[in-house]
Amino acid sequence: MLRRLYDWTMSLATRETAIVWLGIIAFVESSIFPVPADLLLIPMALARPERARRYALVATVCSVLGGIAGWYLGHYAFDTIARPLLEFYGKLDTFEHLKASVDSEMLALLLVTSGLAHLPPIKVVTILSGAANIHLGLFIVSAIIARGARFFLLAWLLRHFGEEIRDFLERRLGALAGAAATVLICLFAAHRFLS
Predict the structure, then answer these.
(1) What is the C-alpha to C-alpha distance for residues 71 and 79, in angstroms, rounded to an integer?
(2) What pTM was computed for the model?
């Protein structure tokens, strides 16, 4: 199923309506969809490098709005919508583990790491933020910073290095983002330990 979703998402990049699809994918990725918007952003930015920043802006705004929708799902419709959705994707155990083991400071860090690197998956963290009643303003600011950093950095790399970096990004984007998230987690742990 995921392979078909991936192939379908990639096919959207060649359409005239690609920017609309980018917005839709970025929105639903943050709350209910398993395929990251990066997969659409990469071929679009390579095909039209002069529009890479515009694409990053669309992806950021729509991703933040999708995250807000995920927050509302977690806050107001957890049992009726969010729980069945998490069960469908096999993420309910991850959600329950995080809910039992993180405090509000750690959840704020997870907002950044999931926004940057999908660690843990962003839809899990957006729903958890609503269920845990994280302040919506803090949630929005964190989402703007994390998602904006991810999409604008990706757009900048594609605009400046073009096709030669595409293969590298497609293979190693997750590992690079994971490394950045690991550094953030280590800095947070050190700060907590030293405080």
Answers:
(1) 13
(2) 0.78
